[in-house]
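Design job #97: recover the sequence.
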């Protein structure tokens, strides 16, 4: 960015007599102002973007209307565990800010457990959230285990007669539509629960429309703003204390399991899955039935 001082220096070099203050006033008169970049460019839109939104919305409305569970899932941003700066402000005695580290380097003593990984499940029909907090790796196995924990603790109580489970998810990450392990572990969950699990993905580049982002994750971020996330227990307590005036309630738990990375699902394993692709964009929309 070129400052008013740099502009004044360049103009002076061209024979003009100007000060930085004069440059600032002239820029304002010309309609300029200091602005930060805005994240608005999503890249090239997929030609079927709107049609996929309509397909997803229609399916969600139909399933919620008949009392079947519909959840929105995603991984929230990883958080460094320790006494680090967390954006935002909190009420404290005057001139007594919380002291945090001057750097953001993860604590080497924690090793691979230096970051918290919150994976969220948002029950669209009941405005309820569930968050599994791990500290190893954001893998597909970890994602499906979070859904399993939600179902075993909350889902099957809320939906005792459910025959299906509908999941809306982003196109990428541990629950991406190209991730074989995601589908493989979902198939195991379908067999365990007896549920036909349908997944509908948001089109590429549209993750901000995922309901979990603005109905759960945004409120968690507001709830712990200005607070350092010193340990897993603190993180879980802050997540579970998240509420809204519209009635959002959240449960959270620690997932102590270790999840290896780089597990490959073979063509044979994929071919044996009870995977049924939908007529419309079978890559984005598919159902896994109990084996």
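Job complete. Output follows.
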């Amino acid at each position: 960015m070129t400052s008013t001082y740099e502009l004044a220096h360049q103009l002076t070099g061209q024979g003009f007599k100007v000060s930085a203050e004069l440059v600032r006033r002239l820029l304002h008169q010309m309609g300029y102002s200091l602005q930060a970049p805005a994240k608005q460019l999503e890249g090239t839109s997929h030609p079927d973007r709107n049609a996929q939104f309509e397909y997803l919305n229609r399916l969600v409305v139909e399933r919620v209307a008949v009392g079947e569970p519909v959840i929105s899932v995603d991984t929230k941003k990883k958080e460094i565990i320790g006494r680090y700066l967390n954006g935002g402000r909190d009420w404290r005695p005057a001139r007594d800010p919380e002291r945090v580290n001057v750097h953001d380097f993860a604590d080497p003593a924690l090793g691979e457990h230096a970051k918290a990984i919150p994976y969220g499940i948002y029950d669209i029909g009941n405005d309820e959230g569930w968050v599994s907090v791990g500290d190893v790796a954001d893998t597909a196995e970890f994602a499906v285990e979070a859904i399993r924990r939600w179902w075993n603790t909350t889902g099957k109580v809320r939906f005792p007669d459910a025959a299906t489970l509908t999941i809306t998810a982003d196109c990428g990450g541990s629950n991406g539509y190209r991730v074989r392990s995601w589908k493989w572990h979902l198939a195991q969950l379908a067999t365990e629960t007896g549920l036909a699990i349908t997944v509908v993905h948001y089109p590429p580049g549209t993750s901000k429309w995922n309901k979990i982002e603005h109905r759960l994750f945004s409120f968690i971020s507001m709830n712990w703003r200005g607070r350092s996330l010193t340990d897993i227990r603190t993180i879980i307590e802050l997540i579970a204390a998240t509420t809204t005036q519209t009635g959002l309630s959240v449960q959270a738990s620690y997932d102590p399991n270790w999840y290896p990375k780089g597990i490959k699902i073979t063509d044979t394993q994929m071919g044996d899955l009870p995977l049924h692709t939908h007529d419309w964009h079978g890559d984005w929309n598919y159902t896994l039935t109990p084996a």
